[in-house]
Amino acid sequence: MAGQNQPYERLATSDNNMPINPPNYDDLNADDTFSQGQSRNTSHVPIEEFEIDDDETFEPLQREGFLVRASLITKKFAYNFNSSVIRPVTKIIDPIYEGYKYFQLQYERSILKLGNPLVVKRLLYVFFVMCFIFIITKYNVSDGVNGASGGAFLSGKFYDINKLSESLKDFIDPRTMKLNLEYLSSMPHIAGSKGDLALSKFIEGHMMNNGINVIDFNELQSFTNYPVFEPKENYVKLSDNSYEATLFERKNHDMEYLAYNPNSLKMNDEIESFYIYANYGTQEDYRKLKDSHIKLNGAIFLVKYGGSIPEPNKIQIAQQHGAKAVVFVTPKYDINGVSYDDVIIKENMGLTRMSPGDVLTPGWPAQDGFVARLPWSKSPITPKIPCIPISWKDASEFIKKLGSNGVKFDDDLYSGTKSDEHKLKIRIKNEERPMHQIWNIVGSIPGREQSEKGVIIGASRDSTCYGTLSSGTGSTVLLEIVKVFTSLQRRYNWSPARTIYFVSFDATEYNLAGSEEWIENKKEELKQQGYAYIDLSDAVSGDELKISSNPFFHSIIKDALAKVDKPDEKESKEHISLFDYYRNINNGNDAIPNNMIEQKNYVPFINTVNIPSMEIKFTGGKYPKNSCYDDFTNFEKSRIDPSMFKHKQLVELLSRIILTLAEEPIIPYNFNDFGLKLGEYVNDLEKFVNDRIATLTQPNIPQIHYEGLRRAIDNLKAAGKSFHEWVENWKKFVAESAEIEPSLLAMNRWNWNDNMLIFNSKFLIQDVQPKRSGYTNILFGPAFDAPPADDHKYEWNTFPAIRDYILQNDWGRAQHEMNLMANLISDSAQMFIQQN
């Protein structure tokens, strides 16, 4: 066999048949196995040995290729999927399909019994679609936040305002607000400074982090000035050098602690002259001095802050009486039960009542510096004499030197008289920046329906020092409102019907430069698009709820007040709403005044573009605004809002109002309230005129006629009644139409919204050069000599031109303006109705 492969052959046996049973091994002897060299097998079959072919070479098995293995895996997966998925599903579907075929057969037989199958099927299809739409609109929309379709336009959709409003509280966090307020108060931020820029970036970042995608970092150019610490260049002292005022607060020489007035005139030379104490520096105070034959020309006047006229007006009056300079006297302040007499208040000296904004570009925008700027001496709103503030501690030393000479005022202080013994030396050196950067931060949530129209929420950001109460509280509320509305967007996939703007205004303490310049750059756009402004300056400074508003908004403010709870600090079982609280502190009266006459950012919105405005805040006693004592430490010590509950209430209240303003299908102007309030304002004007006439000594008593103005207001009331009847009919129609608004009706509704803004613009005078360039609204706005804040005596924010002429005793022009106003109101009312 060597060298050859033998084929396999069956071994020969004695029995060619296979055994029936298997062999039995039980009788084998384990000790006798092959011991004798022979097998126990009875067949005695010889064993044939195999031979190994040494010539063959051993080769290891090779692994199959990738494609072969992939094919095997695929087949295995297909087999498993078929057995575990396809076959079980088929067993389930087959009976269902058989049932479907059975019912389809029955359905076709039924259709044949009814008539033409094609017609019957179409009717059934229409019926099914109608049922589907009914179910969606009846149960899904009405019970949810999303509302129904408003018009046949993609953007037309109404939302449930009440349900959105109830979600607002979920997003308000007092702890976060306190942290924000602390950070906003952590650094001085005079307009245009590094601290101001840092806070503007912080607010921009907050908007971005909360999902505001449309942000405008609006950089403008405006005049600014800053104090410098140079004792040899800045001083107020007695001419004999026996006493010198301390021109900084809290023993600190940093810029923010130094005494100065924004928009004040700097001096190159020293002024030395006799000084007179002029009380509050009003015309009445100077009249008393003149009646006592006290020489005024060439004097340095010591004038107290406060009183019945704004501080910039005092500079103008002092100029008229020949003053060389004015030293403003800061009153003492009680802070946390401690009286401080070293406080120095730094007030703006730009003539806001003539024109807010950049003092070198009164009445026109100053963006990017590419405009003509007036020299200081030519601008009608710059002070032409120097001024500086000092503390009560220093002022009392100067006044004490005057003795008991001159006029005795109501505060038991004497004016003094011209004397060579009582002289002051003054020198004021400020650093001026005629074109310096300021920054407004403007974020917005675009509207889904009428995105070109918007409600604006604005807060001042800058301060002459830390500004915790003056600007910090308002900015804190603004940031929280941003968070609330972006959270609503994320939770409900919601966007407002009209755009919401969030604006952080710079340079408020520099004659409202930030807001006024922003408005002047967008004047025509805002006239056509802005329909509401909410101001957030010094939002929380006490316990008393104070509201001022255009009459258009009185009803929605009261509705929102009634829905916000006022936490009871005494933990009694009785809980009241903010509306009840507001009425209680006003002796049961829920009337809302319209006296927005302070130096705040609502001034240009009302007087330049006539956008109806409101201000809601918690106020209290006086605090050292524009002083470095207005800081976070004193805020906490005074316990004005230790738990931030007032901030929380204010955020909820304002958010409800904003939601109503932005989401109501029809802009929620209440023309009924507007007409009623105008009638009250005419009565107030008549009282103002009669009080003024009573002071006259002339024999001929002037006569003013109000009949035409009252008839015009009656016409406006009739127009407002027609408008609100249309609104009620619109609501009824939409409610009866399963909340679906036809396209033509939606367009009519939009026209009403357009006409409301046109109505506002009708009261802006078109003179090329108005007497007061920043005051073109002849219906609302303060008279030039109106008090700096609401004195609760008159409705100062109404009929400004008429009141100006009455204060000037120009009765003929006052009657002429009244007649023009009557015609304008009648024409505006007629236009408002006829446009629709």
UniProtKB/TrEMBL annotation:
Residue stretches making up the Peptidase M28 domain? 440-639
Ranges of biased composition (kind: Polar residues):
1-19, 32-41
Transmembrane residue ranges: 123-141
Tell me if Metal-binding is a UniProt keyword of this record: no
UniProt keyword list: Carboxypeptidase, Hydrolase, Membrane, Protease, Transmembrane, Transmembrane helix
Write down the Pfam families for this protein, in alphabetical order: Peptidase_M28 (PF04389), TFR_dimer (PF04253)
Which parts of the sequence are annotated with region: Disordered?
Answer: 1-41
**Domain Transferrin receptor-like dimerisation per the UniProt entry, residue ranges:** 705-832
GO: which molecular function terms? carboxypeptidase activity
The question of whether Membrane is a record keyword is answered with yes
Which CDD domains does UniProt cross-reference here? Answer: M28_PMSA_TfR_like
Q: Which family does it belong to?
A: Belongs to the peptidase M28 family. M28B subfamily.
Task: Write the protein's name.
Answer: Glutamated carboxypeptidase
